[in-house]
């Protein structure tokens, strides 16, 4: 169950990052509220996952899901530029997430 909590927490990190971008510096109420709620839920789920998962693994995977997810949302939804170096960087993060998961106890 801890891994499910961790994945959901990482996905919520993507939600709050996107909502924060849409909040225009917290000047728009709707996206600001989504940001705050998603942040709290993300950290709450991370804390549940950390009851049984190692700190280093849980935190690394949580931030990795958020980073790569925000990268993908930026490209797909916000039409941010994509180039070889950015794709390589995202690939390295995904590789790190996979290795961290493989090194963690089940």
Protein topology:
Elements: H1 2-22, H2 29-49, H3 55-76, H4 84-103
Keywords: Cell membrane, Membrane, Transmembrane, Transmembrane helix, Transport
Membrane topology: Multi-pass membrane protein
InterPro entries: EmrE-like, Small_drug/metabolite_transptr, Small_multidrug_res
Short overview:
This protein has 106 residues and is an all-alpha fold. The protein has 4 helices and no strands. The longest helix is centred in the middle third of the chain and has 22 residues, at 55-76.
The number of helices is 4
Question: Helix share of residues?
Answer: over 70%
- Tally the structural domains: 1
Q: Separation of termini?
A: 10 Å
**Count of DSSP strands:** 0
Average pLDDT number: 94
List low-confidence stretches.
none
Tell the overall outline.
Answer: flat
Order of helices and strands: HHHH
The class by helix and strand makeup works out as mainly alpha
Largest sheet: none
Radius of gyration: 15 Å
Beta-strand proportion: under 5%
Protein name: Guanidinium exporter
Membrane topology: Multi-pass membrane protein
Subcellular location: Cell membrane
Keywords: Cell membrane, Membrane, Transmembrane, Transmembrane helix, Transport
